[in-house]
Amino acid sequence: MNDVVLEFAGIHDMEPENDLCAVFRWVEGEKILPIWLSPVDGARALSHTGGFSSSRPDTYDLLIDVLEEHGGIDSIRISSHFEGTFMVDVSTTDGANYDCRPSDAIVLSEHFGIAFSIDEDILAQTAVYVSADDLQEYFGLTFVDSPGEEREVSAQGSGLETSASGNPQADADFEEMMRSLGVSEEDFLSGHDDEENNDTRVINDDNDDGEV
């Protein structure tokens, strides 16, 4: 079982339905892993990672305080994926393990500086290809790769430049991704033949309540 470390590229408010999508980058595979968050939990995670603080401690503040008493976080791992829902295991340095929702794990990841990891087999099944142009257009992301230098996240919240794959599978992956955003082929492709709508979206219902 091989794990892959992911680069977090932010939580994005996606048109046309204003759904919230957490984007992770699989650098070696030149793909991204989109995890759709419920409106409430996604907004809370986005607010907390954006620096908002309330006058009184909120649930995240309490969770972080408790975990710090355990010595902090040792790992954050996407352990499984079933019917569009991602399950995340959070392990503390003193050996405790917790089942965690992706939105909560994102807040913990940002606070403790621990990157997400994921089983390579799960990643291969759920990651999708998106070209550099479409990353910019739909997510506002620009990935810049500097050989021999540490990767830097752009002002728009991203990581590395992705090159086009030049193969039909990459095109199919991209079309799948755009369908999951609610964008029709006519909206993002010109001169592309219509294909049968076989929508196998990678969607996470963070509340596990069937709503996206």
TrEMBL record:
Q: Known InterPro entries for this protein? A: BFN_sf, Bi_nuclease_dom
Pfam families this protein is in? BFN_dom
Q: Where is this region: Disordered?
A: 150-212
* Polar residues: bias regions: 155-168
Chain ranges of the BFN domain: 3-130
Q: Name one GO molecular function term.
A: nuclease activity
Show the ranges annotated as biased composition (Acidic residues): 184-197
Could you identify this protein by its name?
A: BFN domain-containing protein
Species in which this protein is naturally found: Corynebacterium flavescens
